[in-house]
Amino acid sequence: MTNGSRNLGLSLKAATAAVLLAVGASSSAQATIAVERGNDPADLTNNVLFNSGESSQPSGFILGDLNGGPADVIKFTSSTDTLVTQASGQSKLSSQDFVDNAGQLNDRNGINQLTVTALSPFVGFEAFQLAFNGEAGTAITFTGVDQFNNPQVFPFILEGSVGRDRFTFTTDAAQYITSLSFTSNAGVDVSLEDVRQFRVGLTSAVPGPIAGASLPALLALGAFGWVRRRRTVAPVTA
């Protein structure tokens, strides 16, 4: 093996190590997701609007528009329920299996799982707000997934007041949420009649693995590509 080939091999190993170290460091990054209960700290004006009588079957999802903005940009899915809308405009989402017993405490069922994302992979949430119309004691567990694909979990117990059971999620500058979901224990003992007043703050997003890559990782990947290219064009010597 010539000195040139040996040096090239060492360069390739060094570049590979740099890539692994940089990508490993970037994978530990995590966005800051904060949640506030009750009031409206984000002053969000992008209300999500629905059409009356929509159902998540057979498509598996319901799309929401933004008031005065693009149509069909927010996607709502559930792994447990058939979602339905009750009216046009800034309406609410319910589960088809919810049973309303005329305001008595023995209402039953409701949404047990809901996931909200932007329809486009190039859009994320810098803020998100929603409110619950459910019985006091209903357990809600939120999961916010950040731009680095890290899930962050936030458990709450509903108090039975839409005003107090409003939650606003925000992120720091240059950070965003790719999806927000929740699970509930709605069933026989407690119920969740609907989720309402969806408001969003949108920001540009970078889809796929690149979103989780830091600048050092991208530079290391560039160096790796350069060494690979040099290896390809290097002359063969005896």
Explain this structure:
By secondary structure, this protein is of the alpha+beta class. The chain has two domains: 3-23 and 215-233; 32-209, Sandwich (Jelly Rolls). Helices cover 18% and strands 36% of the residues. Strands 1, 2, 3, 4, 5, 6, 7, 8, 9, 10, 11, 12 and 13 form a 13-stranded antiparallel beta sheet that branches. Strand 5 (83-85) and strand 6 form a beta hairpin. Helix 1 (3-27) runs antiparallel to helix 2 (215-233). It is globular and about 45 Å long.
State the CATH topology of the largest domain: Jelly Rolls
The total domain count is: 2
CATH architecture of the largest domain: Sandwich
Structural class: alpha+beta
CATH class of the largest domain: Mainly Beta
Task: Give the termini distance in whole angstroms.
Answer: 8 Å
Q: Tell me the β content.
A: 35-45%
- What form results from the Cα inertia axes? globular
Q: What percentage of residues falls in helices of 4 or more residues?
A: 10-25%
Number of strands: 13
Low-confidence stretches: 8-26, 217-236
Number of helices: 2
Give the averaged pLDDT, no decimals: 80
The major sheet is characterized as: 13 strands, antiparallel
Specify Rg, calculated over alpha carbons: 24 Å
User: What is the ordering of alpha helices and beta strands?
Assistant: HEEEEEEEEEEEEEH
